[in-house]
Amino acid sequence: MFFSFPALLALLALSALSVAAPSNPKVVSMDVSKKTYLGSVKGRPGVYISTYISVGTPPQSFEVSFDTGSSDLWIPAVGDDQTGGPGLFNPQASSTFKSLGTSFNAAYVGGTAQGYWVTDNVNAAGLSLSNLQLGAVSNMQDQKQGILGVSFKQVEMSVRNGQPQYYNFPFSAKEQGFIDHVLYSLHFDGPHSPDGTFLLGGIDHAKYSGDLHYYNVANPSAGPQINFKSLVLDGHELDFNLPVTLDSGSLAIAFPDTQFRAIGSGLNLTNYNKDMGLYYIDCQAEISVDFKFDGLTISANSSSLVLPMGFFSGDTTDPSCVLGVQNSALYESPNDAVLGEPFLKNAYVVYDLEDYSIGLAPAVYTDKSDVQAVSRTL
Ligand SMILES: *[C@@H]1O[C@H](CO)[C@@H](O)[C@H](O)[C@H]1NC(C)=O
Ligand SMILES: *[C@@H]1O[C@H](CO)[C@@H](O)[C@H](O)[C@H]1NC(C)=O
């Protein structure tokens, strides 16, 4: 998830090239997995959801943070002042690399990234995209991990700076014939499991219960946001009615101060760590929280909501636990409401970037699958 948008020079929108027609069904399944940051967040190690891609010809491999809250792909690269090294993209070694001659600047919650815009071939799972636009980052603060942002074109760093949109990873997948509709689904294997699946172009109907409920994304330039109605704690309902971002790039659920404190009171939590914006909670606490959307309830319990403090502080020897809800007063945008990983583990989420809607249903954890490639408006 990003929080500010430094200046960026002019960009040209790219028209993606066609490639040989991929085989049916038109879905691409990518594994995602929770990992500890290679770098740090504000000086502390962090946790992110990762996946693997390769860039260039011949391919150079990268582990990247998988982020539904931002829209650009960027990777660490060899800079003018660097001779290169492991984990850095070396453009000289790629025969398909092209520089766009414009600078790339991004500021994420994990740090800032500066470099330049390039195009090159990108491979991920069964997907092989030609000339995808991405950021080659030679100067990073804190954040040491590249990011695969898969959100709306309206959230692209270029657009945030008044420049044209371009075909990012999910939109290029459609332009180049790998999927028929710019949509993807995200689910995790269980409330404790670090692993999940990003299914580009389709929906796995075995992985949720009941019907998918679709919600309109009213303002795509704010990211994958839908209206969140209320939270039920211990039978007591707190009315929220605010837009929330369904953000895989967030380790926590986050609410503005007022709502955050209401949740703490509702759960009788009093021990607040102000520096971290987190409530301590008994590691054995049995809690149950219902997240309510119009016509739909997603329930969560301690297995996804009570987390080791070490997840946030990086100190894995700390035996204390915290509620996986953070005060967004600590964020650059203190009014942000974010449903990050502790919520997402309980839901099956369909992000339809083409029709600006998000589908939600309670998750079912199963090895069974019933994948449907989506070819049109749902
Ligand atoms: C909070 O405390 C009140 C009063 O002791 C009690 O009725 C309520 O059940 C508690 N709630 C939780 C979630 O423990
Ligand atoms: C908590 O939720 C998980 C996942 O839905 C479920 O497997 C588990 O049984 C629940 N635990 C309790 C105590 O209800």
TrEMBL record:
Pfam families in alphabetical order: Asp
Disulfide bridge map: 283-321
InterPro entries: Aspartic_peptidase_A1, PEPTIDASE_A1, Peptidase_aspartic_dom_sf, SAP-like
GO aspect biological process, one term: proteolysis
One annotated GO molecular function: aspartic-type endopeptidase activity
SUPFAM superfamilies on file: Acid proteases
Domain Peptidase A1 as annotated: residue spans: 49-361
Active site: 67, 247
Highest taxon listed in the record's lineage: Eukaryota
Keyword Protease: yes
Signal listed as a keyword: yes
Signal peptide: 1-20
Keyword annotations of the record: Aspartyl protease, Disulfide bond, Hydrolase, Protease, Signal
Family the entry assigns: Belongs to the peptidase A1 family.
Name of the protein in its database record: YALI0E13860p
